[in-house]
Design goal:
Elements (H helix, E strand, L loop, with lengths): L11 E8 L2 H12 L2 E8 L2 E8 L2 E8 L9 E7 L3 H10 L3 E9 L3 E7 L5 E7 L14 E7 L3 H12 L2 E4 L5 E5 L2 E6 L12 E7 L3 H10 L3 E9 L3 E7 L5 E7 L1
Parallel strand pairs: 1-4, 5-8, 9-12, 13-16
Antiparallel strand pairs: 1-5, 2-3, 3-4, 6-7, 7-8, 9-13, 10-11, 11-12, 14-15, 15-16
């Protein structure tokens, strides 16, 4: 598997699951993706679960606290050389800084931001923890979509803050290019859906989308979109895990 030693600024460098049942989530994702898990104490009866593939970090999970007004979700982290500078740029570009930059022990510095259209993401300035160690192979992050009611506003914001280039594709889809690498996209805005506020959606690569989707369903997942094949691209599905966190599966042609 290709190993990632360093993430370029503006790339997706980490993903983190906030869930209401951490043990059940660990069982689901290790069964689905073949991940192993290491638990690190965070306090009395609290653990931060680090998922690994091929001995390298691919994701993490923690238990949402009752006072956190958020449903189970996957958080996308974007790499930065300086979290404080990125936070300042984001605020000037119209974002809400939910959590100002803070140190996470000696592993990195981060902040949590809500973009001007309502989607939430985190910024990661690495120290001892560089982020995802494998990317794009089965069982690892391969893509992320921003679902937003205002693609034009989002395009300006992320271009101003991270230097992304948004390139038009078919049917109004915008491809996100960070430097020379295509890392995600922005689908065209659909009808307003109060059950699906603006959000980032993480895509995990799998060898066979239909088979992995069927396995996920057997493990207790539900579907937002059952496997669909897109011409010249591949097959994808959008699911909700047993605790209702949304994620996507993708198999390239």
């Amino acid at each position: 598997m290709p190993h990632v030693e360093k993430h370029a600024p503006g790339s997706f460098c980490w993903i983190e699951l906030g869930t209401t049942n951490q043990n059940a989530a660990k069982q689901f994702y290790t069964s689905l993706f073949g991940w192993t898990v290491n638990d690190f104490p965070m306090g009395p009866a609290e653990f931060y679960s680090m998922f690994q593939l091929d001995g390298r970090d691919v994701a993490a999970a923690y238990t949402l606290k009752p006072d956190i007004p958020a449903p189970p979700h996957w958080m996308i982290y974007i790499a930065s050389e300086n979290a404080d500078d990125t936070s300042d740029r984001a605020a000037k570009a119209g974002a809400k800084v939910i959590h100002p930059p803070f140190d996470v022990m000696d592993v990195g510095r981060m902040c949590v931001i809500q973009d001007p259209t309502g989607a939430v993401f985190a910024v990661w300035q690495p120290k001892s923890h560089k982020g995802i160690g494998i990317q794009g192979d089965p069982g690892s992050l391969c893509w992320a979509d921003l679902n937003t009611p205002d693609p034009a506003r989002a395009t300006k914001f992320y271009s101003d803050v991270f230097g992304w280039k948004l390139e038009p594709g078919e049917s109004g889809y915008l491809h996100i290019r960070n430097g020379e690498e295509f890392i995600g996209g922005i689908p065209p805005a659909g009808p307003p859906n109060p059950q699906a506020p603006p959000h980032w959606l993480a895509y995990f690569a799998v060898s066979n989308c239909e088979e992995s989707a069927a396995k996920a369903e057997q493990l207790g997942a539900g579907f937002y979109i059952r496997p669909i094949r897109t011409e010249k691209v591949g097959t994808f599905a959008v699911l909700k895990d047993p605790q209702r966190a949304a994620f996507a599966l993708f198999t390239a042609l």
